[in-house]
Amino acid sequence: MNTRNWIWFTILLLAVALFSGMSALELRAEEPRRAVIAMEMLLSGDYILPKIYGWDYYNKPPLFNWILIFFFKITGSFSEWVVRLPGLLFLIGTAVFNYLFVKKYLSREVALLSSLFLLTAVDLLFYGAVNSGEIDLFLVFLVYVQAASIFHFYQRKRWFWLFALSWVFTGLAFLTKGLPAVVFQVLTLGGWFLGKGELRRLFDWRHFAGFLFFVLPVGGFFRACAEHGGEAVFYLQNLLKDATRKSAVEGGWLDILAHLAGFPFQVLMILLPWSLLLFFGFKKGVFERLKARPLLFFSLVFICANIWIYWISPDARNRYLYPFFPFFALLFAWLAVEFSGRRIAVFIGIAALLAVLRIGYNFILMPLQQEKLNSGLIYRDISAEILKITQNQPVLLTGTPDTLRLNFPFFENKTILQPPLVPYQLPYYLSKSNGSIMRYEQQPRSGIFYLCFKDFAAGLPAAQALFTFTERWTGREMVLVKVGE
User: What is the pTM (predicted TM-score) of this model?
Assistant: First the structure.
């Protein structure tokens, strides 16, 4: 098989690997929360302020939820594969964009390998692309285009377009995940212009004009929230709190020191097997040759300017590092082509092998994981049992509310009640099946089916317990009850 055919065969294997088994596993981690918010928006017709259990939700802006709603509408389904489809399409979009972008500045071989390395980095292939209903793969696309805009228009000295387009994608990323988008933009611009000795560009009038392309959509969203009855200032305050909660600001010293020591190994592990190519980076003259190629130097600057935030943050999970993957993949691909002495067919073959392993995982291990290996993934069956008992009638949530307190500098202290924390798989699978929102009510009404914790149910008058199960997050028992007259 010639190299061209080998490339297309590998791409076919990757397509099968990514798009098979999309409904084998229940929604996991953050996936059901994203799905539930989008479902509630669609079922209620309220597309402005995110809600969960019918209550305002302030932890993330709604752009990714809007994308999910689009896919719900065009497919006519709330199924797991629909929830996971947008993330996979944006991951492939990132790989395609990377190939088209990189080949303008480097060789086709480096462009091709960097896209394959991105798609087959072990953590992304076996976790991120499995739990693709989370926000992170969409964020990777936005941040990569945001950074690429800075580099591309810098090379052409088109300053207005550099600032305008990068701030547009910063705004989109902010409306997806909040403050991290702004941090990426500020640190990338500062690191790049500092490395080029052109910090004065940050004070160019075209930068201030470009910044408006961030302010207008983001400010417009918060204004719409306020007009829609939401707490816009609290929303912003909570986004800031959420970002600092994951940073060293709220980490203990022992946690920080342990993370500082282990973080480089964490990065190398999640980028396997391609991080092994870093060995060639220690050859004599590599840095000088890298610096002579602007896109490679920019990739190194992006990594160095931004990754230290995660290095000092004890709560830096692997998926938070996905926006760095295209830049690492590019550097590794260049090292493979320029210094490994191997033909690119060798690396394409490794990518094909990884795709085959992922296909095996989809068809062999995923069903076992769902049915036997992970007893926590049981909510699909529990929801089916609940709906059998209620005959597909609406099921609501009740119980003692949680309290969300925010004490952030320069903002008024605020306390807001929130629905009790229960696995988001429950509202997802219940709403998916009966087409009604699982709302939260503090005061149960007679004749209504409710889910609540067992200790709360014990205090309800004339409440009939119909079904009991263990909630796996906290190990507490939950019950399905119907309050009598």
Answer: 0.94
